[in-house]
Amino acid sequence: MASRNYFQSGYFFAIAAAALWGTAGPVAKLLFNLGVSALVLTQIRQTLSFFLLMAFFLVWRKDFLYIRMKDLLFFAILGIAGLAMVQISYYFAISKIQVAPAILLEYMAPVFILLYSATFTGEKITPAKVASLVLAIGGCALVAGIYKMDVFKLNLAGVAWGLMSAIFFSFYTLYGQAGLKKYNAMTLFAYASGFGSLFLWTLNPPQEFFAVEYSGITWLLFVYVALFGTILPFVLYFEALKRMEASRVSITSTLEPVIAGVVAYLFVGETMSLFQIIGGVLVLSGIVLLQQSPSHGPEVEKEVPAQVL
């Protein structure tokens, strides 16, 4: 029973992560409207995430600070090729195509994750998983408004960047899950954020970042995005990966655009069509179906404090 409850809690963590990402979307849009660039937002959210987590570790959980020196390359790859690149590729996509198709392309990641897991890790592709995936992707397509898109007029470079964001999304999900065999989810995300932010500071050097003066309200929004749109959802996402297969976690995360749409409708004044509501219902149906199918979760070892070599 305890093992079953542990597995089921993975859905709670995945849904909570999707909810936080979804509610942070309108805040990011507000920052864009205030003149903050996508690169600066990505840069500051990763940097603040690293420093806030390091401060937390120093005061309350010093054991989370310790990592093995031989694992530095692992953290660098996860932070740069995972966390940083998934955001950069997504923002490049929305710079060339509309947000809706970019979101849809990014959420093709569960397809790649399921295919990879079935091919290389021996995960079984059950009818329930396939049905859940179809419902979730189909629902995302409706929420994104695919029925209003002229697919043949989409910018090819934008489509390519959108697909790259799905690949990077898949990568950090699978690669991050491997890291959970050694490290706590908070440690994993903290050091990955550190390396990701170093990479982003090379793209936007300090003299360029500090050449712009940001208001106090803007900095408060930066902190909000770092805490509730970055640290908490990513740590929750990794906690979900510790309890369930990567395919289940990624399919459950398709709830994010649904929540973002509802939040935008309630607080930003955006409209929701009947098809978008149907899409949200399809995504929820897929997650419920997935939750009902049996699984023993991933074989992730309990993390132990690493010693610095």
Radius of gyration, taken over Cα atoms and rounded to an integer in Å: 19 Å
Largest sheet: none
Q: How would you sum up the global shape? A: globular
- End-to-end Cα distance, whole Å, is 39 Å
Order of helices and strands: HHHHHHHHHHHHH
Query: Which bin fits the share of residues in helices?
Result: over 70%
Number of strands: 0
Structural class: mainly alpha
Number of helices: 13
Uncertain segments: 299-309
User: What's the number of structural domains?
Assistant: 1
Please sum up the structure shown.
The chain is an all-alpha fold and 309 residues long. The chain has helices at residues 2-33, 38-59, 72-96, 99-106, 109-120, 127-143, 156-179, 185-203, 206-209, 216-243, 246-252, 255-268, 274-292. The protein has one domain.
Description:
- Helix 3 packs antiparallel against helix 4 (99-106).
- This protein is an all-alpha fold and 309 residues long.
- It has one domain.
- Helices cover 75% and strands 0% of the residues.
- Mean pLDDT is 80; it is low at 299-309.
Helices and strands in order:
Layout lengths: L1 H32 L4 H22 L12 H25 L2 H8 L2 H12 L6 H17 L12 H24 L5 H19 L2 H4 L6 H28 L2 H7 L2 H14 L5 H19 L17
Which descriptors would you attach to this protein?
single chain, 309 residues, 0% strand, globular
